[in-house]
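Data card: per-record layout.
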Amino acid sequence: MLTAKEKLDELLSLGIELNQLNDLDILLEKILTNARRFVNADAGSIYICRENTLDFTYTQNDTLRKRLPAGGKLIYSTFSMPINTDSIAGYVASTGELLNIPDVYSLPPDVPYSFSKKFDESAGYTTRSLVTLPLKNTRGDILGILQIINAQDETGAVVPFANEDETLMLHFASIAAVALERAQMTRAILLRMIRMAEMRDPKETGAHVNRVGGYSIEIYEKWAERHGLTKGEIESGRDSLRMAAMLHDVGKVAISDLILKKPGKFNNDERELMKQHTVLGAQLFLQAQSDFDEAAREVAFNHHERWDGQGYPGHVDIATGEPLSGHELPEGGARGKKGEEIPLFGRIVALADVFDALSSARVYKKAWSEADVLATIEEEAGAQFDPEIVEIFLSRIDVLRAIQARYSET
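The structure for this 410-residue chain is written out next.
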């Protein structure tokens, strides 16, 4: 457990740490992890405000996680609730007040809110102590709700949250809200860029890119653990990759509508022009100023390369699109990158993109069954895809299904 001085010291450095994260989903994970550490809590959840509703967006639960197989992740369903005083989270969102409840099963009869036992009953969990805080920006707008569940003493027994921690937690919530607002703005900008691509190419939907981003960081995290990357390296990589994966096809904004919206198959010339979206996308990030810029360039440039060397654009100069010296093919063009010549992020997003494309219905095709999609991906291990990435992908399929459901088209 952290001492009072340690909590204050961490609070001072927290703003810098949180503001180094750009991706919204990864920031929510970091906020909840730190909030729970501050008060030694077993579990917690974050709700995001959207107009008149609260969206259940992220959760952690150490007790339930320990019941999973080694390396397993907690899979949860998202849902929404109205912002009113009927629920605990809704009450805090409505009033902006902190609630510190010693035992949610012994609420006073005169309070307007109630505790829903549905989650406890379905998960085999017992919620007792609960702190619920508003995440307010500097204007006083409530961006979301932070719930911290089941404080624990030194022995691991569940106890009420200390009253003296309330002020500290409100300071924490204020710092987290500033980072949350910035991350929401970043996500909105990315989605606007993607909306531009969607106007040109109906395949590039917000749901599609969110799924590709989600799949990509799950695969990357497992790969990074296998290869001995540090926690800091993994965290930094996840943050950059999540956003870069969302922009994998951003170069399509520069492709003619005559090609993008052609209802039939491309001829050879059209196909070659379409392939240029990889180079055009990479050129947007040619003057890299951050890890994100480098990751976005790497993904845009390489997500159509193949493990067997038959992909594109191959070994070309990003600035000109011309083959690099020594990599020209006799019939013209450049030799494709092969195996580990393809950067890791490109190999990961290549698989994530194909998985989602095959699994999704479009105006020109029906969604494939999951069995057919997985069989095709297994067959392409060592040909289109990195075999290790395929192995990791298949081992994480339960988590990927949850991401698929969270970012559905409906």
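Known properties of this structure: The chain has two domains: 4-183, 201-406. The domain at 201-406 is CATH 1.10.3210.10 (Hypothetical protein af1432).

See the next section for split statistics.
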